Amino acid sequence: MTKKPKLIAFDLDYTLWPFWVDTHVDPPFRKDGSGDIIDMQGRNIKCYKEVPEVLKRLHTEGYLLTVASRTSEIDGALQLVKLHGWDKYFSILEIYPGCKITHFNKLKTKTGLDFSEMLFFDDEHRNKIDLQKIGVHTILVKDGVTENLVKDGLQEYAQRFQ
């Protein structure tokens, strides 16, 4: 039997969407008349193309999905998660500045899961280094989350914990 993580966490900036929510866009966000998400300047705000389908599939497959983001723009990040409709997929949102170890300690406390039962997708190598110290398997994201990246990440996790 293939070993699967019980929890899959995602960073937000340059992982689920192609910008830093605290510097590259201008909250508050809203949907315009055509249903597009726009910022205060009227700029169209989009996530990476495959993200909605990836989150839907993982949720349907029964994974506990969470967010671990160190942005200082907490309200804007929460707004975008909700406007994208991802709040139906994410059970826990850890969004605040600081070291990712803090985020994962809180996830561990809230879920009762061990770090070895968690898989994390993030674009920053420094977070991968930090989380390796506590045993969270982290996949480095280069150009946003895709189906192939998640598939490869799940395979890598299974090989590590077989």
From TrEMBL:
Top-level taxonomic group: Eukaryota
Example GO molecular function: acid phosphatase activity
Pfam families in alphabetical order: Acid_PPase
Name of the protein in its database record: Magnesium-dependent phosphatase 1
Native organism: Armadillidium nasatum
